[in-house]
Specification:
The chain is built from 3 helices and 9 strands. It is an alpha+beta fold. The structure holds nickel (II) ion (NI). The site of nickel (II) ion (NI) has 5 residues, from α2.
Amino acid sequence: MQCQQCRASRYRRYTRRPAGAARASLCLTLMALLPILRFPDPRLRTVAKPVEQVDDALRALIDDMLQTMYEEPGIGLAATQVDRHVRVIVMDVSEDKSNRKVLINPEIIAASGSQLCKEGCLSVPTVFVEVQRAESVTVRALDRDGQPYEFSASGLEAVCVQHEIDHLDGKVFVDYLTPLKREMAMKKLAKLARAES
Ligand code: NI
């Protein structure tokens, strides 16, 4: 997709109908869809640094990450996956975009139980892996405005937050596989890359 205004590719044009204008449309915002690093890109192994200042530049990154996550579509995205090595996660496990969460400097402060869930990852397309995770977690983070908050998550949302924090620590879910299964996943990814090129 190409932006009709600036001709950049991978941009989406947003339009609205201004009051009183019948069919006119305005280009309001150009939000970038960010390229996502693919496993086994070594940059996915970078340990992200804590955010020191929540400013407009960070909020622009967060908005681009949300846009990218919804576009893919995915339920979570860590800054590491878009080659920005700061501790920022966006997620939304709902089906109707009603549970959007922005987590800056997230920390799991309590965890309990265990669950086995089949996970996917935007950095490892076509590969799904069963991973053992805590069933419930309590998370502390800063929101998009830099305000601290806490929330509890269970089930899929708990899986998602644990998976995304792993990304910030340079871990990818295929690390949980046995060597043989990891090799099979690598072959599948190589095949996909060949089909795409
Ligand atoms: Ni992932």
